[in-house]
Design goal:
The protein is α+β, with helices and mostly antiparallel strands. The protein has 4 helices and 4 strands. It has a 4-stranded mixed β-sheet with strand order 1-4-2-3, covered by helices on one side. A hairpin with a 4-residue loop joins strand 2 and strand 3 (43-48). The longest helix is centred in the C-terminal third of the chain and has 19 residues, at 72-90.
């Protein structure tokens, strides 16, 4: 499981490094939301952290963690922020393309 180099972190998230560490070790983390790149759909998805502790995600983790949020509303706000940055930088809203240009290693298979 890779982590985006410019990880988007919600304002209410404390100690994001600790949360990432727990996710990578598949330990039961506190309840928060993860914005991740999903290779199968070639899009960003929002996952509840407890969902990522299931056996399927241990075998097939999301390709890249892009953001962390304490609740669903904050996760949507982070997606909005990414979309606004993408639109300002490229003139269109292709989130994955924009993020992969910034950190190509995290988005490679």
């Amino acid at each position: 499981m890779k982590v985006y180099k410019n990880l988007y972190v919600g304002d209410t998230v404390k100690k994001p490094e600790r949360l990432i560490k727990k996710l990578k070790k598949h330990k039961k983390p506190s309840k928060f939301y993860v914005i991740a790149f999903d290779k199968e759909t070639d899009s960003l998805s929002i996952y509840h952290s407890l969902m990522l502790t299931q056996w399927y995600y241990k075998e097939y983790p999301p390709a890249c963690i892009v953001g962390l949020a304490n609740d669903k509303e904050e996760a949507f706000a982070l997606i909005e922020q990414i979309a606004a940055e993408t639109l300002a930088a490229t003139g269109r809203v292709s989130l994955v393309e924009y993020l992969s240009r910034t950190d190509p290693e995290s988005f490679q298979g």
